[in-house]
């Protein structure tokens, strides 16, 4: 959207797609290194299956996102459902609409589930090893404090755009329960555990601010009618900032 369309034609991968491809290679590698650093030992088969599912889900999401984001240039509006979009309504034959709904399913449901469940599972497993009986190790360096903001913003985007609040909040509750359980044993979070735990807390605050800000938006309310109302940033973009590209 920011870069000139002439550089990345609509029938070719965009700049964002290349970054996403790099993410699909770099992030699984980093997650494997993260697990290696954890004092908790896990069956290798479980770790490998989690990483494989992560890569599959992120790759499915890459293809779906690439097509969906390109549709914006044709007038697609993310704040509307697939069948409510003006450009989709005019498709002939009408069976093509089913194909776009299938694409949306792979992107928003199957891809997200296969991507985020292993991701948060690995984070939680790593978190279980971030406890120490030494109080001095429970202090974060300045660099960690500076990185906490970008980290929390990243998790906020994952939760809101990925529509995975249930997965996130259950992971957070599990982390809180583990902290209280380990405290009874005289163990406290080390600097790595504190960084992850505080990042999740700030993420929850950011989500609350986001929801309160858009609480009375009738159009987004229609798009997200459930009990848990957390609009996607892309839906907000196409509704209120569509004139920027």
Describe the structure.
By secondary structure, this protein is mainly alpha-helical. It folds into two domains: 129 residues, no CATH class; 96 residues, no CATH class. Helix content is 68%, strand content 2%. It has a two-stranded antiparallel sheet. The mean pLDDT is 87. One of its GO terms (cellular component) is membrane. Keywords: Membrane, Transmembrane, Transmembrane helix. It comes from Charadrius vociferus (Killdeer). This is Ceroid-lipofuscinosis neuronal protein 6.
Helices and strands in order, then pairings?
Elements: H1 15-37, H2 44-71, H3 86-89, H4 95-128, E1 131-132, H5 142-162, H6 165-184, E2 188-189, H7 191-213, H8 218-223, H9 233-240
Antiparallel strand pairs: 1-2
Helix content: 55-70%
Low-confidence stretches: none
Average pLDDT number? 87
Strand portion, in percent? under 5%
Q: Sum up the overall morphology in one term.
A: globular
Q: What structural class do helix, strand and pairing data support?
A: mainly alpha
Number of distinct beta strands: 2
Question: What's the story with the biggest beta sheet?
Answer: 2 strands, antiparallel
- What radius of gyration results from the CA coordinates? 20 Å
Number of domains: 2
InterPro entries: CLN6
Transmembrane segments: 18-35, 47-64, 115-134, 164-181, 193-215
Pfam families: CLN6 (PF15156)
Protein name: Ceroid-lipofuscinosis neuronal protein 6
